[in-house]
Every structure is written in C-alpha cells, then in structure tokens.
Automatic annotation (TrEMBL):
Leader sequence residues: 1-20
PROSITE patterns assigned: SULFATASE_1, SULFATASE_2
Domain called N-sulphoglucosamine sulphohydrolase C-terminal: residue spans: 377-527
Family label: Belongs to the sulfatase family.
EC number: 3.1.6.-
Domain of life of the organism encoding this protein: Bacteria
Protein name, per record: N-acetylglucosamine-6-O-sulfatase
Native organism taxonomy: Bacteria, Pseudomonadati, Bacteroidota, Chitinophagia, Chitinophagales
Keywords for this protein: Hydrolase, Signal
Gene3D superfamilies: Alkaline Phosphatase, subunit A
Length: 544
C-alpha cells in the first residue's frame, strides 16, 4: 500500500515537473499558409466568407493588424522566418531555384538546443533542407510547390514518396502522425506549411462550388489605369490580361490526363466542350502539360470535370469580352480562391480539435500566418511582390493561453524579421545578435516598449519573371509610403496614406510634400545602413 502511495506521489511530482517545464517551454505550432490574403479572413473584416477556425485563434488570442513582410514572395519569406534576417543577409533573394545556405543559423536549432523537438510538414520551398529539424516531410514536386492532388513529399533522409489524397488533408494527417510518434516528455515546435492558397487554387472535392451563390463586389480600383505609377503600368499580373482561362480558371481544362494519355482519349473528352473545334496533336498534348491538373486520379478528375465542365459550357454560351470578361474572370478567381481557403480552414479546425481532445491546447501556442499578402482584384491584380499594402501586409493571429488576453488587437508595426526572435522569446531563449528583428512578445502582452519601431524597411528583387514587377526598396510608416524602383523602371513614388489609403496617387512631385519626402529619405537611408543592405545603399546614392 505504502509502495503504491509512493509511486503515485512520484508520478504526481513527475507530471508536475513536466507541466512546469512545458509552461516555461510551451509547445509552438505555426500554421503557415501560402498567398492567403488577410482581406480573405473574416477576423480581418471579410464579411462574405467565413474562416471560423482562423477566427477562433484570433478570438482566443491576438490579431496583428500591421504585420509586414520584408520581401513579398514565398521562398524569401520562409528564409526570413527561419533566419530572422533580411534577404540580403540570408542570401535567399527570390524563387530562382538557388538552394538556401544551410550553413547559417536558423532558430529551430536553438529550440532543439533547449530541449524542443522540431518538425516542418508541408510546403517549404527552399530548394534544400535546412538544419534544425528532427522531422521533415515537405512537398517535393514542381520545384517545391507540390501538387494539390496526390502530391509527393520528401523526408529528412531525402527519400521521396507519393501519397493519395488532397494536399491540405494530407499535411494535417502527417502532423497528427508526427504528434503520435514524438517524445511526449519534451516540448515541440511544428511548422504546418500549407500549399493553400497558392495558384492555381484547387479546392478539395467537397468545397467545389462552395461560394458559387456569392456575387463578389468588384474592388473600386479593379480597373486602375496605373496613372503616375510606371512600375504598375509594366507589371504582368492582372486578372484581365495575365490570368489564363484554361490554366488558372480551368475553362475547357481536362483533368487527370498526362503525357502518357492516349491522344484519342483527350480528343474524346474535348469534344464535350468544343464540339465543332479541331485540335492539332500539339494542342492536344498541351492539355496534358499542367501537372496540377494531371495529378488527379480518376475519381477526383471526374468530380472536377463535372464541375468545371458545367462552368465551361455556361462560359462558352455567354461569349464575353472586354470588361465583362475581366469581371467574369474576377468572379471565378475568387470562387476558386475562397473554396481552396475553405478546405484549409476546415483543416485548421481539425488541428485545433486535436489539441483540445489531447489536452494540449492549454500549453500550446498556436499561430496562423501567411507567407505574404496577396491581391484579390485590388488594382486589378492577383499575385504579390509590390510594397503596396495588400502584398506588404500579411495575416498573423496567435493564441497563447494565460499569456495573451483573448480578443487582443495589435496596431504596432512588426515584420517577419521579428517572427524568429518572438518565437525564441516564447521558448525563453535570447535572440542571437546576428538576427535583425526583435521579439514582439511584450507587445502581445500589451507592454509595448517605448522605443518600438514605427516604420518598416522593404526590399524586393525578383525580375523580370514571372510577373514583371520592378525591383524596389522602400519605407512604410503609418501615414506614408516612399518607394525607390531601380530596375526595369527607375524612379521614386510617394503616397500620402491619410488621403490615399488605396495607394493610387503617386504625389512624389507635389511641392507641398517635399519636406516630408526629404525626412523619409533620410530615415530610409538610416534603415538601409542599420540593416546593412550595401546594394541598397549604392542604389540610394545613385542619382536618377
Ligand atoms: C509560380 C506562379 C506565379 C507565382 C510564383 C511564386 N505561376 O511561378 O504566379 O508568383 O509561383 O509564388 S504558376 O503558373 O506556376 O502558378 S510563391 O508563392 O511560390 O512565391
Ligand atoms: Ca507565397
């Protein structure tokens, strides 16, 4: 009897110690999506579609209204997340295919040194596997973008495997599998890297057509003429001209065929859409090119074929052109985009329920963020890259029970160089001096340091492909935006955000702004020097 009592006491103390350790070192989950616009989230004010599970994280924790990125594109955002550094310091400037330098320090290594088990599951897109992870299962095909259906993953040993199913569901399943096999006596850190909502926006089968009844209001700058903004005139990312009917909006698309499919089979399927049209063999083979569509199995392809077949027929009957066609494309874009986001939000719900049912919710920090912002028709665009708001800002909601007061809304400026320092701070680890950001945990606790930054430095590089956005650098404050474009287009832009929140009127040449522009230029120079961006300093010092 005595022995049993002692054993129970021992167990009790053991559990208490583990709990105390976990309080000190809470588990951290970062659900990190791709191209999911903050304006697509109901917690951020979208009232046409609901994202109940992202909203739940915000409601039970904090929502950041001014969370910016330093270089609005996929790989560079992930490299900044891992290193806490700008692109010019971590060497990952664009999606050009160069592998990330794996010799440099990434914050999960510090988590590991402090007893954490670490995992990254899903989309990573860095062309090499970084250090600092105990478990990796990341999307492998299409240059790391992966496929929506039946995707291939690569693990920490560089073994690739193909799986059956829809990518977002699989990523959640892999997370659960890892959770079951991890050591429960250690705290964990996991990145759940979503492929959603990346182009070409393929929803899971139950979500096909989920928003067909909604007529989405056209942004009032949808037909922006880009007056006074030469770089905006040069870009190649409009819904009107760049977005493709077949490859993006799936009009006349044939699903589940690939290079090996018999041409007669393709011809037969096409007859349904184009009964009077004759196709050359080359054209037929082109239908088997886009791998996101060829990876569907027979059952998935049949569901997609049925849904988009109907839409194609209706589209063909309407014979749209000009502005009507652009408006129609906008509707279809948003319907696919939001349906893909819906498949993701449901999976976020699965993750939250799992944490509830395993008792982990109380000592696990849950973050939902996207790698950058995205245009949903503002300026007539899709994609990202520009320093303008919709791509510069990105969603960030965080739940930290007992530490962050539910319903907190944060207006302070933070950026993705601050993410690594913040996550380290949550784990009780000091930020190494080489990182360029600072922890915003005090802000989340509503104890903002008096000297917290009031402006953000930005530098974008990738050019000209794929969307012809001129490389630029700039500074964003609460009231102003100053930009220097330096390749393709050379020149300055300046926006008064109090009068022009949509950033439509470049007033760089208006005399009354000369004093504030001069002030911002000198601040921009300070930031360039502070972040040690040598190339930017040369650009800044070169007169135009
Ligand atoms: C692909 C897309 C682009 C997108 C980039 C980068 N084209 O190239 O539209 O900007 O990825 O996206 S697609 O026709 O292949 O879909 S990122 O999120 O990885 O940075
Ligand atoms: Ca992205």
């Amino acid at each position: 009897m005595k022995k049993i009592k002692l054993l129970l006491l021992g167990l009790f103390i053991g559990t208490a110690i583990i709990n105390a350790q976990h309080q000190q070192h809470p588990n951290i989950i970062l659900i990190f999506s791709d191209d999911h616009a903050y304006q697509a989230i109901s917690a951020y004010g979208n009232n046409l579609v609901q994202t109940p599970h992202i909203d739940r994280i915000a409601k039970e924790g904090a929502l950041l209204e001014n969370n910016f990125v330093t270089n609005s594109i996929c790989g560079p955002s992930r490299a900044t997340l891992l290193t806490g550094k700008y692109s010019h310091k971590n060497g990952y400037y664009d999606n050009g295919g160069t592998p990330i330098n794996t010799a440099q320090l990434v914050f999960p290594q510090l988590l590991q040194q402090n007893g954490y088990q670490t995992a990254w599951i899903g989309k990573m897109h860095l062309n090499a596997l970084p250090k600092g992870f105990n478990y990796l299962n990341v999307l492998a095909s299409a240059g790391g973008q992966g496929h929506y259906f039946n995707p291939t993953f690569v693990n920490i040993n560089n073994d690739t495997s193909a799986y059956k199913g829809y990518v977002t569901n699989l990523i959640t399943d892999f997370f659960f599998e890892w959770m079951e096999q991890r050591d429960p006596n250690k705290p964990f850190f996991a990145v759940i890297g979503e492929k959603a909502t990346h182009r070409s926006w393929l929803p899971d089968l139950p979500d096909l057509g989920a928003y067909d009844a909604i007529d989405f209001p056209l942004p009032d700058d949808f037909f922006d003429n880009y007056e006074s903004r030469p770089a905006a005139q040069q870009q190649d990312m409009t819904i009107d001209k760049t977005m493709r009917l077949k490859e993006d909006l799936k009009i006349g698309q044939i699903f589940g065929i690939n290079r090996n499919t018999d041409l007669n089979e393709i011809r037969k399927r096409l007859k349904e859409y184009y009964p009077n049209k004759k196709f050359t063999d080359k054209e037929l083979r082109n239908f088997a090119r886009n791998s996101d569509y060829s990876s569907l199995d027979a059952e998935q392809a049949a569901a997609y074929q049925k849904y988009y077949g109907e839409i194609t027929k209706k589209f063909e009957a309407q014979k749209l052109n000009g502005k009507d066609l652009a408006k129609w494309k906008f509707q279809r874009y948003l319907k696919d985009y939001y349906a893909t986001a819906r498949s993701m939000d449901r999976n976020i719900g699965r993750i939250l329920s799992y944490l509830d049912s395993t008792g982990l919710s109380k000592n696990t920090v849950v973050i939902y963020a996207s790698d950058q912002g995205f245009y949903l028709g503002e300026h007539g665009w899709f994609d990202k890259r520009f320093i303008y708001d919709q791509s510069l800002k990105t969603a960030f909601v965080i739940r930290y029970p007992g530490v962050i007061k539910p319903g907190t809304r944060i207006k302070e400026f933070v950026s993705n160089v601050d993410w690594a320092p913040t996550l380290l701070d949550i784990a009780g680890i000091k930020t190494p001096s080489e990182m360029q950001g600072a922890s915003f945990l005090p802000i989340l606790k509503q104890q903002t340091p008096h000297n917290w930054k009031k402006d953000i430095y930005y530098h974008y590089y990738e050019y000209p492909q794929p969307h012809h956005v001129s490389p630029h650098l700039g500074i964003r404050t609460k009231d102003y935006l100053l930009i220097r474009f330096y390749k393709g287009v050379e020149g300055w832009e300046f926006f008064d955000l109090k009068k022009d929140p949509k950033q439509l009127h470049n007033v760089y040449n208006q005399k009354e702004y000369a004093p504030i522009i001069a002030q911002l230029k000198s601040r921009l120079k300070e930031l360039i020097i502070h972040y040690d961006d040598k190339e930017a300093l040369d650009i800044f010092n070169t007169p135009i």
